[in-house]
Hints:
It is a single chain. The protein is mainly α. It is built from five helices and two strands. It has helices at residues 9-16, 20-28, 47-61, 66-74, 77-111; strands at residues 35-36, 43-44. The relative contact order is 0.10.
Amino acid sequence: MNKDKSYSVSQVSKLTGVSVKTLHHYDEKGLLVPLRQQSNGYRAYSQKHLVKLQQILIYRELDFSLQEIKLLLTSKEEELLDTLSQQKQLLIERQQTLAKMINSIEVTMDCI
C-alpha cells in the first residue's frame, strides 16, 4: 500500500473487514479519528490509521473495552508493557482452563 494514499471509509471497511458503522463508532469515541476532506467533509484514512486500526482490533480481540483501548493507545511504553503482561497472564490462565475442559471432554468421550 502506498504510504501517502488516503482511503475512504468503504475502502478501509473492505480492506480490514471492519464495518463502516464500526469505523464511524471508533471515530465518535475518539479511537480512530480520520482526516476530513475539505472539499466534501468525507472521512479519509491514511496508512497510519490502518496501523492504528490493527492495534485496536488486536486489543478488542484481547477483550479490552473501548475505554481501555483509548488509554492504551495513548499510554507510555512501560504502562503498555505492564498492561499487556497482565493480559498475557489472563490468557495463559484461560488457556489452562480450556485445556482442562478439553481433557475432561476427551475422558467422557472415552467412557461412552
